[in-house]
UniProtKB/TrEMBL annotation:
InterPro entries: NAD(P)-bd_dom, NAD(P)-bd_dom_sf, Polyketide_Oxido-like. GO terms for molecular function: biliverdin reductase [NAD(P)H] activity; riboflavin reductase (NADPH) activity. It comes from Streptococcus equinus ATCC 700338. Gene3D superfamilies: NAD(P)-binding Rossmann-like Domain (3.40.50.720). PANTHER family: FLAVIN REDUCTASE (NADPH). It holds the Pfam family NAD_binding_10. This is NAD dependent epimerase/dehydratase family protein.
Amino acid sequence: MIGKSSNKVQALIRKADRMTNVVIIGATGSLGRSLHEELKDNTAYDITLFSRHAESLVLASNEKAINGSATSSNDLDSVIAGQDIVFVALSGDLPKMAFEIVSSMKYNKVKRIIFVSSMGIYGEVAGEPKGIVAPILKPYRKAADIVEQSGLDYTILRPGWFDNGQDSTCQITQKGETFYGHDVSRKAIVTLVKHIIDQPETYLNTSLGLYR
């Protein structure tokens, strides 16, 4: 019994000593930049910043930047291999990007993804027709469905309109619950993301509505 307990303690120590490898896909977007600011210079994380124009970012000591496209399997493989956490906050052809990211994660045996979608993808916003998804949100819904059905360990975030407020907490609803707000601070979103990165079992396989 003593030997087994000692082995468990040593395993926990090794885990605590190892940096968490995080790739931010969409690193030059507003949420990607906010998460980069939240995690930079923290030696608990080894950060890869991935974007079409990642070279525009000022790097901290624990970061590297790689230019590439989220629709290119080769580009994605080059940054997803070896990661612990994949954070995705993108705009554009979201279903295509989600498909390629999920495929790359499976190929590279990376399991944990945090994927930013949008409020309203289930027709869940209070005061709007229940269950009706606006056409502009259908790509966000399709991308979320791809992630949800992927077999990966996912957390889907459905934030309201984000702003530069300094509040670091927000209301959280589960899939199927009514979404009562319309905005949320970037600070609150990245605070939650950091919490999930630090405790990857948190909010596992859930779709979270975020609002103030």
